[in-house]
Amino acid sequence: MSEDDDKKLDDDSSSSEKGASEPVRKKTIVGMAPVGQTPKETKGTLMGMPAIDDAQVEADKQEKLAAAEEKPAAEEKPAAEEKPAAEEKPAAEEKPAAEEKPAAEEKPAAEKPPAEKPPAEKPPAEKPPAEKPPAEKPPAEKPPAEKPLAARPALYLAEFETPDAIVHAAKRVRDAGYTKWDCHTPYALHGLDDAMGLTPTKIGIISFIFGLTGVLAAFLLMYATNATDTSVMGFAGYRAIIGGKPPGAFPSMVPIIFEFGILLCGLSTLFGLCGLVKLPRHNHPVFSSERFARATDDRYFISIEAADDRFDLEDTRALLESTDPSFLELVEEDAA
């Protein structure tokens, strides 16, 4: 039995004991006769209903209490209602060690069967004889490599550190009779032209001749077209009066004469200079010298070309060495 059932039984027994010890109280209902007085012999009746016997009710309670106490203890459930230990799975229920496969019972490693001998290799099938490729033509003989052009002397280049040194050296070269030589300086030196023996330039003469030619050509053109009506090769002039002046007046020709003379003078100066200095020329052997780069900075140079009639490797070198240069170099160029 549970704890709740036990509590109920204890309550019932205590209430029954109190009822046995205390006298039975009879209740009186308003409008009804008190206990012991039964009018018209209707004891304990309510509105015609039969009376209830208190003694009989008490007897019934005692019987129920006795019957409840007589229940066997075996039928009572334990309070904890725990399952008996027999029902619990004992730890022994785990698989016994006997059931585990012992190490000895493990399957022994399967013995490897003896290695089978590999099948005998079949001899390789004989390849059919390869067809012989057609005989290759012998490679064409390469033409003999061209020999590099032999270098030839181009000029001697002497370097000087002061303007006075180069002026003195220029006089020595001039007196020796060389004609194809030059001086290279960072700026124009006064007196160097005289030391080199240079004649006055011909550019002025060329410019004057072509300028005068332009003036005369312009005058004749203006006079023939505006002052006369003479026919030349089918073209006749047209006598024109300009500014109220008579045909052929000189003041009207001045602008054209001036412009045409200047035009021819300028063109002759340009092309005459290029012809005298042999321009254009894309390269010169003197630029192959690394030291010549200082000719535009702080050094002065004299170059004597091999094309000069008096040029000789030994004599020319001896002449330049006598001028006491700071450096002397023979510049070569490829033979044409």
Write a structural description.
- Helix content is 32%, strand content 10%.
- Helix 1 (3-21) packs antiparallel against helix 2 (54-69) and helix 5 packs antiparallel against helix 6 (254-276).
- It is built from 7 helices and 6 strands.
- The chain has a 4-stranded antiparallel beta sheet with strand order 2-5-1-6. The protein has a two-stranded antiparallel ribbon with strand order 3-4.
- Mean pLDDT is 75; it is low at 15-48 and 77-105.
- With 336 residues, it is α+β, with helices and mostly antiparallel strands.
- The protein has a domain at 152-334.
- The two termini are 139 Å apart.
| pLDDT averaged over residues | 75
Count, helices: 7
Main beta-sheet annotation: 4 strands, antiparallel
What string, H for helix and E for strand, traces the elements in order? HHEHEHHEEHEHE
Ends: how far apart? 139 Å
Instruction: Kindly estimate the percentage of residues that lie in beta strands according to DSSP.
Output: 5-15%
Strand arrangement within the widest β-sheet reads 2-5-1-6
